[in-house]
Design brief:
By secondary structure, this protein is mainly α. It contains eight helices and four strands. The longest helix is centred in the first third of the chain and has 24 residues, at 38-61.
């Protein structure tokens, strides 16, 4: 787990740094949201590839397989409900005028690619840059990087520890809040306790795959 956590954080840290470099050239405001360029496209592609890597990792970790051996958004969208992805709202920490956004809002199995505007933009500009560069907007790119941040938190935990040095790096760019989680507030794991040598010990967790 530590190796996977560290590798994911390194990739995310690089992505966050590239996003901040974009902000040095294009101010992230509502009026600039539709600004597009080749440089913005580069960050959009990188962000969506990182999101895809996280999606795939979670499915593989739970033993999920397809007949073709490849995953599509028809498979990825199955992560929405168990990971509560559409409950995470993000704000840009240093640009308070930029609107808050929920990267996974409106994601649905009926239309799993087009229902994510930033992911649909990634597919369009990846396969046909000449005609679709205008989809590589600042808005789509910020949302895609935010989606990668959400996946990092949902994979490895919202609370990594108060002394964990990863969190300040993420929080210097994004503030993350949750919405609509009250229905889950009474659902939590309780570790198995056992009495050993006259003291209470916590047994190791037994992991199980999620039944997608």
């Amino acid at each position: 787990m530590d190796d996977k956590l560290n590798a994911s954080f390194v990739a995310l840290r690089i992505l966050l740094r590239k996003l901040e470099e974009l902000f040095e050239n294009v101010e992230p405001t509502a009026s600039n949201a539709q600004t597009y360029s080749h440089r913005i496209r580069d960050v959009l592609l990188l962000a969506c590839m990182e999101v895809e890597s996280s999606w795939s990792a979670v499915l593989k970790e739970n033993g999920y397989q397809t007949n073709s051996g490849r995953f599509t958004t028809n498979d990825y969208v199955k992560l929405l409900q168990p990971m509560l992805l559409d409950a995470y709202e993000l704000h840009l920490q240093s640009y308070t005028s930029y609107p808050a956004f929920t990267p996974y809002a409106n994601w649905g199995a009926a239309n799993p690619t087009q229902s994510l505007a930033w992911y649909d933009a990634y597919n369009k500009t990846k396969h046909d840059r000449e005609d679709n560069l205008h989809y590589a907007t600042l808005e789509n790119t910020v949302s895609a990087v935010g989606a990668a941040v959400v996946m990092f938190y949902t994979q490895f935990g919202y609370h990594l520890g108060t002394r964990d040095q990863r969190l300040p790096v993420i929080r210097s760019v994004f503030q993350l809040t949750t919405q609509g989680l009250s229905r889950h507030e009474r659902e939590f794991y309780i570790p198995l306790l056992a009495v050993k040598d006259d003291h209470i010990a916590i047994d190791d967790w037994n992991t199980s795959d999620y039944p997608f």
